[in-house]
Amino acid sequence: METKLRGRVVVILAVIVLCVLGIVGFPRDLQKLKENVRNRIRLGLDLRGGTHLILQVQVEEAVNITSDLVLERLRDEFRAKNIPYADIQKTDSTHLILKGILQEKSEDLRGLVDEQFPDWQLSRVAGDPAARELALKPSAAAAIRAQAVQQATNTIRNRIDQLGVTEPTIAEYGRGEYELVVQLPGVDDPSRVKDIMQSTALLELKLVRDGPYASRESALAGHGGVLPPDTQLLPGKREPGGEAAGSEAWYLLNRIATVTGRDLSGAAPSKDINGRPAVSFTLTRDGAARFSRVTGENVGKQLAIVLDNRVVSAPVIQSQISDRGEITGSFTPQQAADLALILRSGALPASIKYLEERTVGPSLGADSIRHGVVASIVGLLAVMAFMLMYYRGAGINANLALVLNLLMLLAALAYFGAVLTLPGIAGVILTVGMGVDSNVLIFERIREELRLGKTVGSAVAAGFDRAFATIIDTHVTTVVSALILFTFGTGAIRGFAVTLTIGLVVNLFTSVFVSRTIFDYVLSKREKGEALSI
Amino acid sequence: MELFREPKIDWLGKKWYLIGGSLVLFAAGAISVATKGGLGYGIDFRGGTLVYVKLAKQPDLDAIRAELKRQNLGEATLQRFGAAAEHEVIVGLGLKETAANEALDAGKRAILTALGALYGTSPAGKSDFNNASPQTVAEQLIATDPLRLAARGSEEAVKTYRNLAEALISFRNSPPRSGLISDFQELRSVEGATPILVEALAKDFYLSGFAVRNTEIVGPKVGADLRRQALYVTLAGLAAMLIYIWFRFELIYGVASVVAVFHDVVLTLGIFSLLNEEISLSVIAALLTLVGYSMNDTIVVFDRVRENLRLNRRESFVDLLNRSINQTLSRTVLTSGLTFLAVLSLYLFGGEVIRGFALALVIGFIIGSYSSVAIASPLAVFLQERFGKRRLGERPRVYEREAAGVRR
User: Which homologous superfamily does the CATH classification assign to the domain defined by B12-42+219-407?
Assistant: First the structure.
């Protein structure tokens, strides 16, 4: 054997070893081998079962919260800096209109905005010299939206992790619409997970000014139709066991919360003094300092525990409390455990909306895998049998190249951690088709050259050389379009593009390099004048 | 073995028969699409709710329909699915009914309630084994500890019960049960399922007469966006191919091959409409595969044309193209035949989930092979005669450039 040929054989054998290692690792027994393959060749949800969700983060809510805060801060600043104004209105989530600004205070206002609200743009309003418009800069708004998506991703990941779902994926959907894809393998009843993911879980502890009232109207009537400044009315339910238990109850609360979910350092399900399920929480040092001051000053008053703008309970402060507290209400043990989980993982920056939900039951997933395997093996065997029949000796050559092609494709998927989905299998089929095609092209060409009366050696060389240009063209054309699909497509289309691209690159190697090497090897062993089996 | 030995068929002389065939198919498809009011999009693109269920006995569609009506789902569609012996049905809701509720999955839950009322006689406090996940079963077993394993340490008990639950559920999911058992005693054949364990399961669980195999809920926004995206991405892919072929060959070859590929996609969609098959996301993946395959096929022919142009100066373009098609004919037939074999096996053995996908490939691959000869080649001749000569006189431009290259 020539040294050049030997070198090529070594390269091929090394690639085979690397591929097999990539797929099976270093198993100690058959059990471990199966496990390794299952871990490395990751199947998509459509094949193995699980839940796939697409949800949208309502990012405008996060922008709204920001502009609400700015509105509040402006009022305080105007008061502090002594800038008189008639009114501040919010026209939409990114625009505020300031009315009744005196001309001589114009400069003060500009200075204030530049210094305190650098994300906002101050401008005059046409037709009203005393009015100013304050607009959130587009770049700042985009940053808030992006941050909301990021924070939502983290929060949701936290919650799912704590639920013990194995190998979840949470990723941006990539359409620029603030959407996330959540994939939960093995979860075939998503309702509980969905509820947990969806809770905004905005926890606030607020002092009760007055109440409870039976309805919003009676609460308003009790205050002459107007709410006192810095207060709000929120609904809840009357405590069980008391008077009119379970009926609607409206509380008049301080608008500013004493502590919020951000001040929590931990939360766990517990039982209250009556043995009912509850959630106990601990506060950060900062939160505890505030909590202890407020509770100390307000012993005997009620403190409302507000979750997502509903009063869960409003216990009376018995004594000064420092760093821990308990949320009671009418919870089931499951609800208490879920609430503790949600509080631990933090609040969502904005609510989320589900756009798509798919659940592949485990029995269907198992069916799909079995059918897929049977169909692939039958198809592959049929193709290989035909190649053997048609090309005889050279057919072995093509079949080896084909098997190596699939082996390398699987290994590449394992090494890149790519997921094999149904559209991915479409990519594999096209790869197999093009792999067979490359070999057929080469063999037909060799036959043609032999018919022209060339010697075996030069016919093989010419066959490979001539077919090479065609193979390059067909492969590059397809890779180019696969790259476009990968760049601009999402989900299913991407899965197709990934396996196709890998498959084609691998195919160039197997059909040109490996197949050629086997031919050369056969030729080197051949007696002079012996015919080629093709 | 050899199929063809130097065939001499005048393909371009028969071009009008071939193009005529395409036109007839196109017209049939177009009429079908028009009369059906557009392409039959699957749930991926039109939105809505689908619930696939397997029942323990022959489904009584009227009873299911009546029960659905009781759940205010009068609009729901109901159809049989798969082999008759599998007792499977699909309950579907349109986009309007799905989007009517604030919660995306309200329709699905109502469907499950209706089926539960018919087939799931639920004794109080028990959960349904046929719709339970391994986690639920494991948790239940760990809580009740029927095998008294806790004495040997809780960690080992948890591990044993988890493995047992996995084995039980995977037994339930494998055929012929495919997700449904009708008697707890069936579980006895699972390794480790002692009579005590099976008895404990029977005490804590009940067996409903249906199992949910698959649910899909697609909201209004996703479907339309997806449809647009699939179209744009495919067009972008075609454009990229056109540019590459332009660069490697000539613009006319690029145009001819892209038109041929486009022809394949359009005809396949038309046949799908004729067969009343739905266009789902996986069908789109199949169409993308078809684009790649058909392009491959066309390039092989054109590559031979390029090579022959370089070698032969006198032959007319039509003769040269005919000769190129004939030279590559055995390869075309072999490759198409072999890939067709692979795809056919996918269609026959691939199961219900990928049936639509495999069908699109089966149809598409036939059309794709045919179009390289029937559409791309005549179009290349037409374009060559129309635009090739005008700029460069008698000789085709490719020939000119390649010849210059050879001389150098």
Answer: Multidrug efflux transporter AcrB transmembrane domain (1.20.1640.10)
**Residue A473 in contact with partner chain B when CB distance is under 8 A:** yes
- H, E, C per residue of B110-176: HHHHHHHHHHCCCCCCCEEHHHCCHHHHHHHHHHHCCCCCHHHCHHHHHHHHHHHHHHHHHHHHCCC
Compute the distance between CA of residue A380 and CA of residue A241 in angstroms, rounded to an integer: 71
Cα-only R_g, chain B: 30
pLDDT mean over B365-375: 89
Q: Which residues of A touch B284 (CB under 8 A)?
A: 492-493
CA distances from B259 to A117, A429, B127, B379 (A): 57, 24, 58, 9
**Which residues is A302 bridged to in the sheet?**
A316
Q: Would you call A481 and B219 a contact, using CB atoms and an 8 Å cutoff? A: no
Tell me the C-alpha distance between A224 and B383, whole Å: 86
Q: Does A203-344 match A60-140 at the fold level?
A: yes
Specify whether domain A3-43+362-525 bears CATH 1.20.1640.10. yes
User: Does B353 sit within 8 Å of A367, measured CB to CB?
Assistant: yes
Q: Is A490 left (phi over 0), alpha (psi -120 to 50) or beta?
A: beta
- Cα–Cα distance, A164 to A193 (Å, whole number): 11
Query: Distance (Å) from the C-alpha of residue A53 to the closest C-alpha of chain B?
Result: 9
Cβ density class A289-315: b for 16+ within 10 Å, e for less: ebbeebbeebeeebbbbbbeeebbbbb
CATH class given for the domain over A60-140? alpha beta
CATH topology of domain A203-344: Gyrase A; domain 2 (3.30.1360)
Find the angle CA(A436)-CA(A439)-CA(A445) to the nearest 5 degrees: 140
Partners of A359 on chain B (C-beta within 8 Å) are 212, 214-216
Mutate to test the interface with A, among B109, B232, B298, B354 (most CBs of A within 10 A): B354
Pick the range with the lowest mean pLDDT from A200-209, B58-67, B88-97: A200-209
Whole-structure pTM value: 0.76
Chain centre distance of CA A65: 24
**DSSP letters for B53-95:** EEESS---HHHHHHHHHHTT-TT-EEEEES-GGG-EEEEEE-H
**Average of per-residue pLDDT values in chain B:** 83
> Would you state the structure tokens that stand for residue B104, as one six-digit string?
């995306």
Binary contact (B292, A478; C-beta < 8 A): yes
> ipTM > 0.90?
no
Residue B233 is nearest to which of A451, A473, A484, comparing CB atoms?
Answer: A484
Give A 276-295 residues with CB within 8 A of chain B: none
Which residue bears the tokens 């094999």? Answer: A420
**Over residues A149-165, mean pLDDT:** 85
Determine the residue of chain A that is closest to B239 in CA distance.
A481
Give chain B positions within 8 Å (CB) of A375. Answer: 345-346, 348-351, 354, 358
Separation between Cα atoms, residue B379 and residue A121, nearest integer Å: 59
Q: What is the pLDDT of residues A393-407, one digit of tens each?
A: 889 988 999 999 999
**Residue A502's CB: how many other CB atoms inside 10 A?**
24
CB A397 within 8 A of CB A4: no
The domain segmentation of chain A, as residue ranges, is 3-43+362-525, 60-140, 203-344
